[in-house]
Write a structure and sequence with these properties.
By secondary structure, the protein is of the alpha/beta class. 27% of the residues lie in helices and 15% in strands. The structure holds threonylcarbamoyladenylate and magnesium ion (MG). The site of threonylcarbamoyladenylate has 29 residues, from strand 5, strand 6 and strand 10.
Length: 341
């Protein structure tokens, strides 16, 4: 593994020369911050054990949680995993987009590192809907392993600056694709077995998937409990701001920061960020992580969050907020905070 050198992160506008440079860096085993429509990813060559190990090292993940293989097209996805008729239909409908599919891996998994799949029989695959991500994946020509580009246990990044602030020393280059349009991570749908399972609510609303699949998806496990042993990524304390988070707030203290939602904003907070004055859940999702960061300031005692409906993208927003509000487990403990990034 190349030595991890501390250096200031280079942020580049995503012109063709920058994308070509990013592809060369990936080929050389380096890590690159790249925009997707959900959150920024910490990209590395998914076929290289060394590059994948570097991702875990950079994030400070105490153990090897499996990573998503990002690809630019269906043919590339099909080299990694077998897409049966049901998976092909869902992929055709929702890719490129904020959906990750858990599929049975092919023997060899199209070269994807065993470390990236954590030795499972399944593999997570996604075609992101961001022109810069797609251009990078096409230029690189191999799958890119990409967890969210934040240190383990911290809030996911939705701007290039967030990536530089959190992981600047570990990435060779950050491609600046602007603010992430969706703002919460992809929905993770397990299609590896006979019964589809929603493993993580995310940027694609449950109802859209249920309509396309023609079945009700069983609820995602309550925050803190893995939906199944094969879903290592649903542990409680995640997306943790440093300040405590208070949910369902209808009033706010003068020493609190307010994360507001909708027109009925209580007065008196030390600082306020509005997710969506109109009560628009897509707008709220896009603002969520940047606003949480902005409110997580030393001078406030806590972050109070107004109630947010559980419908549509509200499910993913509330899932992330419950994790942010959860008691912090000891790092590295079984089921602990940093086991999932
Ligand atoms: O929006 C996103 O999904 C972002 C962008 C960068 O694409 N990526 C992201 O990656 O959120 P990450 O590593 O933070 O989350 C991947 C999730 C984790 O919950 C992980 O446990 C789960 O996918 N996962 C990966 N492979 C799996 C597998 N074979 N079976 C079950 N869950 C899996
Ligand atoms: Mg993450």
């Amino acid at each position: 593994m190349p030595a991890m050198t501390a250096r200031p992160a280079t942020i580049r506008e995503p012109e063709p020369a920058a994308i070509a440079q990013a592809a060369r860096l990936l080929a050389a085993g380096e890590l690159v911050g790249f925009p997707t429509e959900t959150v920024y990813g910490l990209g590395g060559d998914a076929t290289s054990d060394a590059a994948v190990a570097r991702i875990f090292q950079a994030k400070g993940r105490p153990r090897f949680n499996p990573l998503i293989a990002h690809v630019h097209g269906l043919e590339a996805a099909d080299r990694i995993a077998r897409l049966d008729a049901r998976a092909a239909r869902i992929a055709a409908r929702f890719w490129p987009g904020p959906l990750t599919l858990i599929l049975s891996r092919r023997a060899g998994a199209g070269g994807v590192s065993l470390l990236a799949t954590a030795g499972l029989d399944t593999v997570a695959v996604r075609i992101p809907a961001h022109p810069v991500a797609l251009a990078l994946l096409e230029a690189f020509g191999r799958p890119v392993a990409g967890p969210s580009a934040n240190p383990s246990g911290r809030i996911s990044p939705t701007t290039a600056r967030h990536v530089a602030d959190g992981l600047g020393a570990a990435v060779a280059l950050i491609l600046d694709g602007g603010d992430c349009r969706v703002g919460v991570e992809s929905t993770v749908l397990d299609l590896s077995g006979p019964v589809p399972a929603l493993l993580r609510p995310g940027g694609l609303a449950r109802a859209e998937l249920e309509a396309a699949l023609g079945v009700d998806l069983r609820p995602a496990a309550p925050a803190g409990q893995p939906a199944r042993p094969a879903s290592p990524g649903q542990l409680l304390s995640h997306y943790a701001p440093a300040r405590p988070v208070r949910l369902g707030a209808t009033t706010v203290g003068a020493d609190e920061a307010l994360l507001a939602f909708g027109p009925d904003q209580p007065a008196g907070a030390a600082i306020t960020r509005q997710l969506s004055a109109a009560g628009d859940l897509a707008e709220a999702a896009a603002n969520l992580f940047a606003h949480l960061r902005a409110l997580d300031r030393p001078e406030v005692r806590a972050i109070a969050v107004q109630p947010i409906p559980e419908t549509g993208l509200g499910e993913a927003i509330n899932d992330r907020l419950r994790r942010a509000a959860a008691p912090r487990d000891g790092e590295g403990a079984e089921g602990g905070a940093a086991a999932f990034d």
